[in-house]
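Posting for a labmate who doesn't have an account.
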Amino acid sequence: MKKNFKLPRLLMTVFAFGVVFTSCEKEETAEEIDTAAVELQEAPYKNYMVISKSDELTKSVEDYLKTSTGKIIRTIPEIGIAVVSSKDADFVKNTLKNREIQSVVPDYEIKWIPSEITAEANPPSIGDDETYFSYLWGMDAIDAPEAWNAGYTGEGATVYILDSGVSASHPDIAPNLNVDLSMSFIEGEGWNAAPGYSAHGTHVAGTVAAADNNMGVIGVAPNAELVAVKVLSGVTGSGPFSAINQGIIYAANTGADVVNMSLGATLSKNGWLIDADGIPYHIPAVYIQEVIRAQQRAIDYAFRKGTTVVASAGNDGVNYDGNRSDVKIPGGLNNVITVSATAPDGWNFNPDANYDIPSSYTTHGRSLVDVAAPGGDFDTFNEDGSVHHFDYILSSTPTGWSWMSGTSMAAPHVSGVAALIIGKNGGQMDPREVAKQIEQTADQIDGRGKSTFFGKGRVNAYRAVTE
């Protein structure tokens, strides 16, 4: 799980039908961005993150901020961060005079998932009251049914979905959702994803732990507990860095065995950022390392509390290896299991299909990817010229079920496998042991050791709970 902070360019955590993505040579991209960054606008923000030198927020720092020209909005004391609002032009300069304070950085609010992510479509030729299991090629690809038949379904494990919200009323989600622990850290928005809002979090949750209830879909760990933690707007897909950090801490403090983060951002140490909609922003280079520091603190805190953190690798199709200037968060940070995406090649119910083709968009590189999992790929054409979406991942949405594709869909397969492992071992496990078991039991698809596209291999649920 150790990363070297070598990150690619563009992240889109899930593709809806027809979304276009770009992939450039690293040398060309670096030159282009460095030139353009001068003219970019700074990423938007409302507040500041005040990061103390101590990993914990001391009373003296908090008292100091109370007497400053800023207003404390919230604190994350476990990792030494306070979120402060101030209109004083000298707030940053004056606050940094306190020797206990490491940095003051804007709490940037960016899009971590694309605005247009919903790909609503009922599976053809079947009714909504029938099972959609035959469409779940991803479960077959990772041998999830074999794990269930061996008696392992994730019971006793809890998976927190840090995302855009989860539908509390969906029949596949409701049986496993802990509504009392579910929480929102987005101002003015509840965690329950109603119809018309982002389907991303609900889709992710369904892949992790949709219930075994003879309808809809089934998740990798159908008896695991789900908790929704809203860290992104269900309207825009945006969220401040502090909300994600706070969501991680909240999950760790309330008993998360696994945290799934199908989201991400790419930061350049040269001072720029590209959000999930492909919009570039300038960020002063001095702030980059401090933003990274804050999120690494949150992940390390969760890791020490016994929480396994799983994140998507990204959908820019770039090879991280050799790229030393860019940093993807959270996927490129330490103590994170980072997941690339695989797909079949025109599956269409072909029992002999190869499920283990790297998805055309997946971010890759031995320095980033730990394991691979089904994420799907784009439309496939039938012999009559019509389009089918069977190579996508089918899962739940606030209004039913739909197909989506992306490393966002790959990560929850791995979170589900983590839940199976943890459930087998009594509901608590050291994250190091979880990661070790996932990696050692993954199927080596490409070469030996660590592969550019597959990391340690494509996860195997059955092997993970039987070996």
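Reply:
Got it, the structure tokens are right above this. DSSP finds eleven helices and 21 strands in the chain.
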